[in-house]
Amino acid sequence: MGLQRAKGATEGTIFVFPDGIEFQKYGVGWDDSANGYDLAFFDDMSRDVSARHCVDSKRVFIAGFSWGGDFAIALACQRGDSIRAIAANSTDDEFKDNARFMTYQGLPCTAREHPAIRFGHAVGGDPQYPAPDFATTSQLLRYLNACSTHAKPVKSSSGVMSCVLYDACAAEYVECAFDTRIGHTLPPNWAEDTWEYFSRF
Predict the structure, then answer these.
(1) Is there a contact between 166 and 142 (Cβ–Cβ < 8 Å)?
(2) What is the DSSP letter of 126?
(3) Residues with Cβ within 8 Å of residue 27, at least 6 apart in sequence
(4) What are the residues whose beta carbons fall under 8 Å from the beta carbon of 191, sequence distance 6 or more?
(5) Would you say residue 190 has pLDDT above 90?
(6) Nearest Cα residue to 173 out of 111, 86, 67, 103
(7) pLDDT, the chain, mean
(8) Which residues contact 68 (CB under 8 A, 6 or more apart)?
(9) Do 194 and 63 contact (CB within 8 A), yes or no?
């Protein structure tokens, strides 16, 4: 997704790009269920990388797009104690009722703490995820980080995107919405914006 090419990103950073495997009938992807095999894979991968490299365990970051974003949110819920921040883009995760965030498949979360989150998506919905999917995901992320319903605008790097920062969160939650015409893809400056977000931690 170009994150490793963002300015300053390669200085003292270890990038890990895991590959998903065939998941049921849906093609290559992630088992992001609460007891899924990919949570165990994440644990094994983390141990392996830490054994091979000098890793600051307080600075582990996760970025994901679409299904990868679903997995990032699952990690925030189930492994949040070991992750500092995540960036999830164009993801709705999985709800039994997509209008009710408490029907999220991962609840109750096992992590005692949840990471800071930057959630980006098209306004309303996109060709893959119709409304109210993104709105429900936003409610879930606010719930995980114990945020209030009040938010204030924060600077965006692109004229096609607006961002807000929610108040009173246990861990920071930023939500950015971009022009629906961009569709189910990464918005302009995604890599740079994500790296800037991670760098703050």
Answers:
(1) yes
(2) -
(3) none
(4) 1, 2, 3, 5, 6, 9
(5) yes
(6) 86
(7) 94
(8) 20, 30, 91
(9) yes
